[in-house]
Amino acid sequence: MKRLGIAIIGMAGLLATATVARGETLGAILTGYEESPSVSTVANGDFSARIEEGGNADHFHYTLSYGGLQGTVSQSHIHVAQPGVNGSIIIWLCQTDTNKDPTGLAPQCPQEGTVTGRITAANVIAGSTTTQQLNAGDFAGAIAAMRAGFAYANVHTLPLSPGGEIRGQIRIIGK
Asked: Which pTM was predicted?
């Protein structure tokens, strides 16, 4: 009986560990053709985010890489909108001296390369399109939009593509 109790406790520990280790990977491939309107550019990029389940579902870590841009990088964000439609900025992925993240939390944008960061409710800003009903600090809402495929990452450049040079719709790519 004692061995059975120890076995049950051991199995419960393994199950708890498996639950904490589970999570989702979200990602997007950024191209000019995903922008609205489409942009003819050789630039490309990649966005990935890892959302840990269990006790750490209050943040995610991301990596954004891009290159070949035709202009000077001015900013990068996550917006909420379906494919082919422009939507409100809800999370800044990187900022520049010209275009600053209103939360002050986003890292500096490189002209080319990779930027990484950690997103929490403090990074989520209210959407500028009031009919989208996006509230500052709504981390769960931001995650829900990304999981549903109704959010995109993009990189803006000046002077040619102030509305965005490359963009990619964010989707679940792994569990």
From this structure: 0.86
